[in-house]
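Appendix B: complex inputs.
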Amino acid sequence: MKALLVGVVAIVLVATSTTSASAATFHGYSQADELSYVNHDTGLSVTRPDRGVTQADNGCDSLFSGNAVYQTEWVLITSDAQNWIELGTGHQCSDTKRYWYWGYGYLGDWYPIGHEGNRTNGETHTFRVVRSNGSTWTWRVDGTAKDTLSWADQGARVRTGLESYAPSGVVSQYDQYSLQYTNNQGAWTSWAGYDAKYVSPTPTMCGGWNSASSWRSSENSSC
Amino acid sequence: MLTARHVILAAAGLALAALASACGASTHEGATAANVKPAAATQDFGACSAAAADPEVTADSTTLTLVKSVPTTAADLTAWLTSMASAGAPSRGLSSYTDLGSLTSATPMTVCVFQTDDRAIPLPSEVTTQANGVRVFVSSTGTHQIDAIGDVTRLTKQLSSLATN
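Resulting structure:
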């Protein structure tokens, strides 16, 4: 009898664990990288619209929760991507919770620094993460500084893309264009390398180059 | 007579008991450990209460566990942030936290680490962090701000070098 109960308990626990894991594991990407000069990146500029998202009605009470969808950009400080600086637009709660956010990642954890809510879908903005004065990184939207951070390191690569925790989310195609970088705090330079891309899982996530300085993304929608 | 229903009920009971036991054996240090549904939070989170009641911390979690609370001061917290920067982290003074910028160096603070359900934090595709922890800086008046969201074990371990009072 005892063996039977232990066996049933094990089945119950395994079934519960399996259900939770499958519900939480969707994490899609449609992204492109520029590797202009490894460990010398000091700026990233992306122009794109804040695109409307169809998604589940959850994540309504807090940032970075629920089936969030992020239109975002990263300066990867280390090549292993465990350290980064990020600026993006978050969509949650049936896209009623829309916000610009900025922060950084260190050793794989997320350090949110600021956000600005009530963004308007359809409006196009230029999002920049740029370093000056040797170690001061600034998050800018349309030229307006949102905050700064002191981090002496330069970036290993820069990246733009769409990140989704919403397996049934729908994001119609949008372009991330006028993609630019700076090296060693120099002049803004257009992406030119078609260096790397990652789109997964397909066909849920979709992405492709329009040109060396323009990347398109979508989810559950053709691109 | 023992029916299948009896077996299932007994199994469910054992499973719940096992889960409760596991929760009681958490790595809590400092304030009394708690494991509650935020919506019915009646347990005492001590100096971390203000943070425990913040939806930005609970994030719709089915459970909220106080894993660690470290009493300190604004001055010691600033020194800890500086030491983290020396180790390679970005440098970010306590004054840069919007809600904590007006603190004096002697202000009593508590650093609280909660375990939550996994959260959908933004991450590069190479990162596989299980974002089941939230670290919050809480002042003696209850003013607080989230410091980090990520792996609860890692966020907790980083506090080992934080001075306590």
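Residues 53 and 82 of chain B are 29 Å apart (CA to CA).
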